[in-house]
């Protein structure tokens, strides 16, 4: 019998208290319990600043750590041992004493179209010109403006249930909204998915880390690192590290209009490579930089290096100017609102 790595018997998992966050955390709890039955894993949930603020568009927040900071403080203080996040919401730079552990298999990474109840459109291409699409994501807004300029875009905030209710309300301005497949699938709302969006059928790429869970631990916590390795999935971890390295290198943070699509592909020589499609689009959809590359990625270091390579290629294709323009507009806005 393998020897137990620690005398600690109970581990506390921190999470936001939204339905989706709790559901995801219960999945991690169950996987850990199965892999390490001799230990107990209890859940501590907390509403974060991000949950409490549902009126302001996300991109207008100046602090990037809306969803993560308060839980990180509790972990650094030792009150929780690990934190389960939607990886998409985890900033690319973590506090120096925190790291992400090995990642569990990723859920579907794509965005999806959800059409208002009672309407029969089957795809983005079928939505009539002038219809309103609900999204508060600058990435979705920019890509829609580029590929579907005939559609109007309007903010829709709140958790998944709230957004669906806003879509379906009788006096709703929206014909459809765009959401991540993962959240709907985890909440067993797959019936609401009208169309899965990808590079081939709609040209819509997803957010860095989308569909994956980020499990954050204290950097020195070798024991939890070892425990998480047992439930981790190398292909997911490496793809997500590469995506996050790309975003970090572009320095766009969560408000960058960056879309990605990673996939493990066979090279003509039979090797397994990580392929990354990536796009940076200006908010009005008029400028666009895009790059597709693949590389032999077999370690965290090579995943990070690949992300940097893709970032440099995107900048060479014009991404730098697009991001700079967005940054300048943001600074101008902040000055006005003071
Ligand atoms: N930004 C909010 C958010 N963060 C994580 C998810 C769920 C899907 C995931 O795990 O990526 C969502 C909702 C959405 O974008 O539709």
From TrEMBL:
Keyword field contains Oxidoreductase: no
Co-factor requirement: dipyrromethane
Residue stretches making up the Porphobilinogen deaminase N-terminal domain: 12-224
Record's catalysed reaction(s): 4 porphobilinogen + H2O = hydroxymethylbilane + 4 NH4(+)
EC number(s) reported in the record: 2.5.1.61
Enzyme class: transferase
Pathway in which this enzyme or protein is active: Porphyrin-containing compound metabolism; protoporphyrin-IX biosynthesis; coproporphyrinogen-III from 5-aminolevulinate: step 2/4
CC annotations in GO: cytoplasm
GO MF: hydroxymethylbilane synthase activity
Top-level taxon: Eukaryota
Keyword annotations of the record: Heme biosynthesis, Porphyrin biosynthesis, Transferase
Biological processes annotated in GO: heme biosynthetic process
Domain Porphobilinogen deaminase C-terminal: from-to ranges: 238-315
Keyword Transferase: yes
Function according to Swiss-Prot or TrEMBL: Tetrapolymerization of the monopyrrole PBG into the hydroxymethylbilane pre-uroporphyrinogen in several discrete steps.
Family to which this protein belongs: Belongs to the HMBS family.
Stated name of the protein: Porphobilinogen deaminase
Gene source species: Penicillium alfredii
């Amino acid at each position: 019998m393998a020897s137990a790595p620690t005398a600690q018997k109970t581990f506390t998992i921190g999470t936001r208290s939204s339905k989706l966050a709790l559901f995801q955390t219960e999945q991690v709890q169950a996987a850990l319990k199965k892999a390490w039955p001799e230990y107990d894993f209890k859940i501590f949930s907390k509403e974060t600043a991000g949950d409490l603020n549902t009126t302001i568009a996300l991109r207008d927040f100046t602090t990037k750590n809306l969803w993560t900071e308060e839980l990180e403080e509790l972990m650094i203080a030792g009150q929780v041992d690990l934190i389960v996040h939607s990886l998409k919401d985890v900033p690319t730079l973590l506090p120096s004493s925190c790291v992400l552990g090995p990642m569990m298999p990723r859920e579907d990474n794509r965005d999806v179209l959800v059409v208002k109840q009672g309407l029969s459109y089957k795809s983005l291409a079928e939505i009539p010109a002038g219809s309103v699409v609900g999204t508060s994501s600058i990435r979705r807004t920019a890509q829609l403006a580029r590929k579907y300029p005939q559609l109007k875009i309007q903010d829709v905030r709140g958790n998944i249930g709230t957004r669906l209710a806003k879509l379906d309300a009788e006096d709703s301005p929206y014909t459809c909204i765009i959401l991540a497949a993962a959240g709907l699938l985890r909440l067993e709302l797959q019936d609401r998915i009208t169309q899965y969006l990808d590079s081939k059928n709609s040209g819509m790429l997803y957010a860095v880390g989308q569909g994956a869970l980020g499990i954050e631990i204290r950097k020195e916590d070798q024991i939890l690192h070892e425990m998480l390795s047992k439930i981790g999935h190398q292909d997911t971890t490496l793809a997500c590290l590469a995506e996050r390295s790309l975003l970090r290198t572009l320095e766009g943070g969560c408000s960058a209009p960056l879309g990605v699509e990673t996939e493990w592909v066979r090279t003509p020589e039979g090797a397994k490579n990580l392929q990354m499609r990536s796009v940076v689009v200006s908010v009005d959809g008029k400028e666009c930089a895009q790059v597709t590359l693949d590389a032999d990625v077999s370690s965290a270091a090579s995943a990070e290096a690949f992300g940097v390579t893709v970032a440099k290629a995107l900048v060479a294709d014009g991404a730098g100017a697009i991001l700079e323009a967005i940054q300048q507009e943001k600074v101008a806005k902040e000055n006005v609102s003071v």
